[in-house]
Structures are given as C-alpha cells and as structure tokens.
From TrEMBL:
This is Exo-alpha-(1->6)-L-arabinopyranosidase. Belongs to the glycosyl hydrolase 3 family. GO terms for biological process: arabinan catabolic process; xylan catabolic process. Keywords: Hydrolase, Signal. CDD domains: beta-trefoil_FSCN_BglX-like, CBM6_xylanase-like. Gene3D superfamilies: 2.60.120.380, Galactose-binding domain-like (2.60.120.260), Glycoside hydrolase family 3 C-terminal domain (3.40.50.1700), Glycoside hydrolase, family 3, N-terminal domain (3.20.20.300), Immunoglobulins (2.60.40.10). InterPro entries: Actin-crosslinking, BXL, CBM6, Cellulose-bd_IV, Fn3-like, Galactose-bd-like_sf, GH, Glyco_hydro_3_C. It comes from the Bacteria. Catalyzes the hydrolysis of a non-reducing terminal alpha-L-arabinopyranosidic linkage in ginsenoside Rb2 (alpha-L-arabinopyranosyl-(1->6)-alpha-D-glucopyranosyl) to release alpha-D-glucopyranosyl (Rd). It is not able to hydrolyze alpha-L-arabinofuranosyl-(1->6)-alpha-D-glucopyranosyl (Rc). Residues 1-42 form the signal peptide. Residues 860-982 form the CBM6 domain.
Length: 982
C-alpha cells in the first residue's frame, strides 16, 4: 500500500515542521491506542513509523518521539549508528555518484559530468540518473560499511572559470542549462516520486565554489545580483522540482562567512521546496571552522552555528562521530543549542530515511533491486549512447565521417587508454579509441602513443636509472643495465609535468613515501605521486624533479630532486644541489614512431588531451589552458605526414588550441567518456552516430581573456557568454553536425515561441535549438544574451518539425537591488533562436509590459551591499556583517567607492547616517562621480571589532537635491552595513 503525500506548505525555517510533528506525536498516541488494550511499545513491530499508509510527517514524528536525546544526537554525524531497540539499521550519508556509482567496486562508468551536460539532452540525463540510482540500490542490498542511498551528486557549481580544477565535475557556465541537466539527472536518481525515493541526491557544493586555490580560506564575493541571478539559480531548479533532497555546504566562504555556517541553507534553500531537506557538510569542513578558518573559538560554538544555520549532518573526523556528538552535547549544556534544534535536524534526516523506504516492508518500492543491475547489458548500451551524444564536433572540412573501407592509424598518448577520474567508478571493462576503431573496421589498425622512450644516465657515475621488471615493479636504482629496465616512456601533460612509464613492465613510476617504484597502472591517488619534471640545465643535462601534488602542500619542504642516496644506488629525494645530473638519451622518438604509423594510411586519427588526475582536479586548479607542448608538436608532425588528420581532444575543460584548430581538417572534443569511449568515438568518426553535442561553456582564445580566478563578479569582470565582449575560440552552445539545419520564422505562441526547423542535409541528425533573450534597455547592466529555453530535436533528411520553446514574462525577471526583489521591466526584449549563442538564425521582438524601477530612495536605511557599481575587486570587499548573518562592504584601499545610481534626493537632504565598523577613517558622500561634488564627510573613530558597528552621522550641504548618482567614498579599513540620506 502506497503512503499518502507528505504534508505540504512552504517553510522558511527548519523548526516549522518539527513543531508540526510535535502535535502529530500526540495524535499518533491516540491512534495507536484505538482498539487496543495497551499502548504501542518501542519494541512492537507495528509501531506507526513503520506504517507506509501514514504520511511521511506522521511517521517521522512517531519515530522522533521514541528516540532519546542521545540517540537523536547520534544521527547528526555522517555515520549514523544502528538503534537496535527499535530495529533501526545504521545509515551513512555520502555515496559518490557523479557519473556512475564510485568507490564501491566495479560499476557502470558514464561520461564525466561535463560530457553528460554537453548532450543538452535532459531525457537522456534522466535515463542515466535512473541507471545510476538502480546501481546504488544494487550495492545497497549488500550493505557493507560505507555504502548508502544518500548520494553526493550532482555537482551544480557553475563553470564560471575554465581553470577551476573541478571543471570536469560541473555542467555549464549557464545556470539555466545547469538547472535543466541537474533536475533531469536528479529525477532519475530519485525515481520521480518524492514520497518514494530510489536514492536521495545531494547537490554539491553550496555556494559559489569555483576555485581550488586555498579553497577553505578564500571568500567568494557575491553582490546581490550575482548571488540571486547566477549562483543560486544553479541550485534552485532541482530542489524546487524535488529532484534533489538537500545540498552540501562548500569549503569556501561567501562574503566573509564560511558556507558551513551560512544562513542561506535555511533562509533561502529551504524556501525552494515544501519538503524536508537533508543538508550535509563537506568532509572535515566543520573542523575548518575552528582550524584553518579560525572563525569560532570552540567546536561546540562552531557546530552549534552550523546546525542553527541549516546543517543537519556533520561530515567530520571520518568514522569517528564522538567529536561531533560531544560538541553538540556541550553546545546544549551551555545554551548554544536547544533540544528543538537537534529535533529539527534529526527530523530532516529521518524524513529522508522514511522516504527511502527504509522502514517499509521489504524496503519499499525499490527494495527488491539487487546487484544484477550493476553493469547490466542495458547500462552498457546506455553508456555507449551517452558517450556518443556528449561529443562535440568542433571543426570538419568534409573529412568526417570516415569510410569504413579506408585504412586508418590511431596515434597519440590517449589512443590506447581510457583514463578514470577521482570521482569515477571502477569500470568493469574499457574500450580504447584504438580498440573501438579496430572493432568498427573489423581489422587491426596501426597505432603509436607518440611519446618518447628515453634512458637517463647519471653523468657522474655512467649508470642508468633502472626499474623493476616484474608486475609489482621495484624501487628505482642506478645500475649498469642499459636495456629495457632502463627505459621509460615520457608522457607530457603540460606545465612541464611528465609521467614516466617503465618499458620493463608497463607501470608508471610513483613515490610511495619512501621509494620511487614502477607499480601503478595509471597516475592516481589524492596526492598523485606519479608526477615529475625533467629540468634542462645550461650544459644540456637534466635534473629529475619530483612534482607529486603533496610537494605543493604547506607541510612539504625540500628536497624534491632525485639522486643516489645509499650504497646500493637506490634513488631517493635530495636537494637541488645534490641532485644527479642525467643525460636524456632518446631510445625511440615518439613523433617519428607516430609518423611512421600514419604514413600511407587513408586517415590519421590523433587522440590527445589530459590526464584527469594531473591536469586540474579537486584541490588543484589549472595553471594554463593550453594543450601540452609535446602533444601539440605531435599533431603538427602527423598532420604534415598525413593531410587527412582527424584530431580527437579528450579532456575535461575548454582548451586554447591556438593555431592547431586552423591547421587540422577535423577536430572532435570529448570528455573522458567512460568505459565505452572507444566504441562511441568509432560510431562518431565513421558516421554510425551523428555528432550533436554542444559546448556548455565558452572556449576562450587565451587565458589573458580571464580575470583572477578569485573574482566572482561575472557582471563587472565580463565573464561567461552572458557578459564576455571578446571573441571566443568557440562560443557557448557551439557544435557541428554531419548534416545542416534551416530555421524558420520565430513566432510567439501561448507560453513561449515556436519555429520550424528543417534537416536540409542527407543524414539524420539532432539539432539543439537554443532560445536566448536580450533586454534592450534597463536601469541595470543586462547580459548580452541569456539562455532561457532549448530543445534537442532529431530530424531525418528533409524532415521539418515545429519546435516549441517555453518562455514566460516572469522568466525575464532580474534582481532589483533598489528594492531587493525580482522585477520584470517594461520594455523591448530580443528573443533569439539559434544553433549557438553567436549563431542566431531567427529573432523576434517582444514588447513586455512590466514595471519601471523607480528612482532610489535613500531616506530609509539602505544596505550598502545593494550598490549599483563599485571601484573594483581589489579595493572593495563584501564581508560578513556578523558571524550569524548579513553582508557589509569593506574598503581595502583609500578612495574605494560605491555607486548608488539614479537616487531621488527630492528637495534636498541634510544628514548622512551610517552604521560603520572597522578601522578609523572617513566616509565621504559625493554626487555624480567618485570625484564629484563633496556634500559631506563622516569621521569615524573606529571600533575594536569588525563586528561592532556604531552609528555615525554628518551634515550635508544644503544644495544636495534633485535626481542624481550618489557615491560613498571610503577610506581603507572602513566597513559599512547600512546608511541613509535625509
């Protein structure tokens, strides 16, 4: 019997439902006693929380009433213990499921998230999500430690900056596309019925988490428009659609306040849905509040602040819950928390567990799903389909598709490998590009990785660096052996970083905290200890530098170079001065080998790209956007040897391809696309699938087009396709096909716009019809274009279909900082339909009757953060007004200014009043410009704490009247929260 719907109704604070449940406890006691001779006892198998006929709220209220305070507190840690007296099993938050179930064993591996989003296909995303949800259920049947149905996916952080190390985990630089894709994936994960959850997905990472550099101490500064129009809009759709059951707070700070204690978790996120959410912290983030962030003095204070802000589950101290539970108990005993706060968080957790069917007979609707679904034939086929749909054709002069009757060679460092990433599952099998093409042609193909094989000889001893010859390898030594054991294949990943693969056993060399051993199948691990740099010296010799990720940590220090350190000649770490000097003997030229493989073939396919563990990943941003120099040189050499060269770029982010994209006849991009990579590429290259992927972020021509990665103001800095005024290498939404499409006229219809799209080519293909809007005039700076709708439509040759794209007047709203609310302005809006953000094929003008934003009224207290413009990111900072809530503005240099445009001063103003904190200084009020007429100066003597605000005032010149722009000009160190002019 299916349970009835849970109680609805918006709730801005998490205590609301707890109060409702308190009344339900009394009602349930009465219900339980009807027709019975005695009340239901805790050990009775029929107690109400196990009754699926009751509402979710009623069941949670019953269970909550049966728990002791200690038991409720025990639920607040990631590892929730069993409660045997109630027959309740243990529960764990946090199974990784970004593009397949990860870290639990062999499971279907789909393309990376950036690749999945490049399909622009919500229907496919929902199917992928459903498959991942099924496999999570399959693992859960066996319930070993560490498995659970609360999934930490998807990642919806906007791909604002392509240098972000975790670019592979996100979907798009655009919030609408991100919301559409995440909602579809989440719907698949949940099963589509919020009362009966297949799994409970958690959106990562709230909020504005888009740099890995000092990610736990840097502050992402979000002015209200960027917060409301951009960053929040990536998270809201899936929550509002009940396609996600909570958010994970991110490590970073926003406007000076750690997200682990952000009031937005309650005050904003919980208003997006009428259902309970389970909000979790990122791993070890609670400890950062007293550690690296130094935000609170004690863990009790820190955990209490996080709990009252909206966190329900603490991910801290790994499996040891004692520090968390002790901190919560201490906070209760000192009055920092009330038991009702614990009840609220525990209630949110139990709500999700009830909806997952944990307390239903047989585990509920999805309880029968078993391990047979993992790596099923259907999921293998879906992985291949997703990999083919996700690829983006960047260039094609007619070379593609290839003829199956023609000969081919497949070369490049990624030609015969499939890499996994940090959040990837363990694939049950992999198909490399070489294998996929060979299978497609039904014959072996010539191949070469195109990397140099070298030997390193110590100039002082004449001995060679040698590795172990068996499967497990051995510590590197210097010996007289100059054979295979002394040879290494050198893979260039850019920025001077290379990996060394032993020719003796095909394993990569890595550091194991004591020795360098050739024992790894691919670079891996949190620190990625398989990285080296060959540093050329003036005399032509080389130093071998160890460049593992841990060498960049604060606790690591020299030495980082290799050299003999003992009598046996075993290589260890030494200082640069003591490092061995090596000659680099090229045993086999990678370029020569690749050229030999492609010469005389009808087609050369070159597969280049990144290594996911090296080229940017969690905790490590990218330092450049370019292709590795050796890979670029390989492409040029192959192109010179074989004019019919097709380049496949397999990586996780936009790449500045430079002249390369002009030199080769065909260019195809794919993410690291999972176990079916090779088959999908073969399907695309040989025309059994027609490329239809579209880029989900701007590909810039140069890193010089980007401001600091720490500048989050996309409006002022001109980021993303919405505000970028430069020329992109490839624009947002771009992608080619083997066929062509014609667009008809754009017509307004109820609920949106429609147009006819015709396949004018000779092949069946899919077109992604994209609808953008531009507001011609506005009080505020508006995006150049903004995606509002899209549809991926498949058409046969000659077929025409009417494509309807949803668009309502309310979709045109932007955040009005003068009144802190959404507004649709009266005016003309350009409605643009196209194949990318720059390839507009049809347009219409829409006259919208909305409202006119009135002039500012500064006579009432105005929050300083609601400015219209400011001096720049280096002189103005958004900071925490208090540790609990609020945003203030701080000047980081003298002369920093805030603009409040179009202010109505009326017949005149005579007094400036402001709430200030921080260093002694002044606040000037000027009209027209930052150096315009000075009408008043407030002197401020400073406060002992940046959170201790005091009221200052100053007389204003009587001539200040009329309608004008008002500027506040601040001296360094002054913080302002609110001000008024009267």
């Amino acid at each position: 019997m299916q349970g009835t719907k849970g109680t609805k109704g918006k709730k801005g604070k998490k205590g609301t439902r707890t109060r409702r449940r308190t009344t339900l406890v009394v009602a349930l006691a009465l219900i339980a006693g009807l027709g019975a001779t005695a009340p239901v006892h805790a050990d009775d198998p029929a107690y109400p929380f196990r009754d699926p006929a009751l509402t979710v709220d009623a069941r949670v209220a019953d269970l909550l009433s049966r728990l002791t305070l200690d038991e409720k507190i025990s639920l607040l840690h990631q590892y929730e213990p069993a409660i045997p007296r109630l027959g309740i099993q243990s529960f764990r938050t946090g199974t990784e499921a970004l593009h397949g179930v990860a870290w639990l064993g062999r499971a279907t591996v789909f393309p990376q998230a950036i690749g999945l989003a490049s399909t622009w296909d919500p229907a496919l995303m929902e199917r992928v999500g459903s498959a991942v949800g099924d496999e999570a259920r399959g693992f859960q049947q066996q319930r070993p430690a560490g498995w659970g149905l609360n999934l930490w996916a998807p990642v919806v952080n906007l791909l604002r900056d392509p240098r972000w190390g975790r670019n592979e985990e996100g979907y798009s630089e655009d919030p609408y596309l991100t919301g559409s894709i995440s909602t579809a994936y989440g719907t698949g994960l949940t099963g589509g019925d919020p009362d009966h959850l297949k799994t409970a997905p958690t959106l990562k990472h709230f909020l504005a988490n888009n740099n890995e550099y000092q990610r736990d101490t840097t502050s992402s500064e979000l002015r209200p428009r960027v917060l409301k129009e951009y960053d929040e809009q990536a998270f809201k759709p899936a929550i509002a659609a009940d396609a996600a059951t909570g958010v994970m707070s991110s490590y970073n700070l926003v406007n000076g306040r750690p997200n682990t204690a952000s009031p937005l978790l309650d005050d904003t996120v919980r208003t997006w849905t009428s259902r309970d959410l389970l909000n979790v912290t990122d791993a070890f983030a609670p400890g950062n509040l007293t550690g690296s962030q130094q935000y609170f003095a004690t863990q009790a204070e820190a955990d209490a602040a996080a709990l009252t802000a909206g966190i329900d589950s603490f991910t801290d101290n790994d499996t040891d819950s004692a520090p968390t539970t002790n901190a919560i108990k201490s906070a209760l005993s000192t009055g920092l928390l009330k038991e009702s706060d614990v009840d609220a968080a525990a209630g949110h957790i139990l709500d999700i567990r009830v909806r997952l069917g944990e307390f239903d007979p047989g585990g509920g609707r999805y309880g029968a799903i078993d391990a047979s679904v993992i790596d099923s034939p259907a999921h293998r086929e879906l992985a291949r389909e997703a990999a083919a749909e996700s690829a983006v054709l960047l260039k094609n002069d007619g070379t593609l598709p290839l003829r199956k009757s023609a000969s081919a060679a497949v070369v490049g460092p990624l030609a015969d490998t499939v890499y996994t990433d940090w959040y990837s599952g363990t694939p049950p099998y992999t198909v490399t590009p070489k294998q996929g093409i060979a299978a497609k042609l039904g014959t072996p193909v010539a191949s070469s990785e195109g990397v140099d094989r070298i030997a390193l000889k110590d100039t002082a001893t004449g001995k060679y660096v040698t590795a172990g010859t068996d499967e497990t390898g051995a510590p590197l030594k210097e010996t007289a052996d100059s054979g295979t054991s002394a040879q290494f294949d050198v893979f260039d990943w850019g920025s001077g970083v290379v990996t060394l693969r032993s020719a003796a056993n095909g394993k990569y060399v890595g550091y194991n905290w004591s020795n360098f051993v050739n024992d790894q199948a691919q670079p891996n691990g949190w620190f990625v200890q398989q990285q080296f740099k060959l540093e050329r010296q003036d005399d032509g010799t080389y130093l071998l530098r160890y460049a593992g990720y841990e060498t960049g940590e604060s606790w690591w220090s020299n030495p980082v170079y290799l050299g003999p350190t003992d009598a046996a000649g075993t290589l260890g770490l030494v200082t640069k001065d003591a490092a061995a000097r090596y000659t680099k003997d090229v045993v086999r030229s990678g370029i020569d080998d690749a050229v030999a493989a492609v010469r005389g073939k009808d087609t050369a396919v070159v597969v280049v790209g990144s290594m996911p563990a090296i080229n940017g990943r969690e905790a490590h941003d990218r330092t450049d956007l370019g292709l590795a120099p050796a890979q670029e040189a390989l492409v040029k050499a192959v192109r010179a040897a074989n004019p019919r060269t097709v380049v496949v770029v397999e990586n996780s982010y936009p790449t500045t391809l430079g002249a390369l994209q002009q030199q080769v006849p065909a260019l195809l991009w794919t993410s690291h696309a999972g176990q079916e990579t090779g088959n999908a590429l073969a399907d695309l290259l040989y025309g059994d699938a027609n490329p239809a992927g579209r880029l989900t972020q701007t590909w810039y021509e140069s890193a010089a087009d980007l401001p600091s990665i720490l500048d989050y103001d996309i409006i002022k800095s001109g980021r993303t396709y919405q505000y970028f005024k430069g020329r992109a290498l490839y624009p947002f939404g771009y992608g080619l096909s083997y066929t062509t499409f014609r667009y008809g006229a754009l017509k307004q219809v109820p609920g949106g716009y429609e147009l006819n799209v015709t396949n004018t080519g000779s092949r069946t293909g899919a077109e992604v019809v994209q609808l953008y809007v531009h507001q011609r005039t506005s009080r505020d700076t508006q995006p150049l274009k903004q995606l509002k709708s899209f549809d991926r439509v498949t058409l046969r040759p000659g077929e025409t279909r009417t494509v309807r794209l949803k668009l309502r007047a309310s979709d045109l709203a932007h955040w009005d900082v003068t009144r802190s609310r959404w507004v649709v302005e009266t005016g003309t809006y350009d409605v643009l339909a196209g194949s990318s953000s720059t390839d507009i094929r049809a347009r219409a003008a829409w006259q919208v009757k909305g409202e006119t934003i009135p002039p500012r009224n500064l006579s009432t207290p105005t929050r300083a953060e609601n400015f219209d413009d400011y001096s720049d990111h280096s002189t103005i900072s958004l900071v925490d007004e208090s540790k609990a809530s609020g945003t203030a503005v701080s000047a980081t240099a003298d002369g920093a200014w805030l603009k409040f445009a179009d202010t109505q001063l009326g017949s005149g103003v005579s007094r400036f009043t402001a709430r200030l904190a921080g260093s002694p200084g002044t606040a000037e009020i000027r009209l027209g410009s930052p150096t315009g007429r000075l009408i008043g100066t407030a002197d401020f003597s400073g406060t002992s704490s940046p959170y201790d605000y005091t009221t200052v005032s100053a007389a204003l010149a009587g001539a200040a009247k009329g309608r004008t722009d008002v500027y506040l000009v601040l001296s360094q160190g002054v913080r302002v929260s609110t001000f008024s002019l009267r």
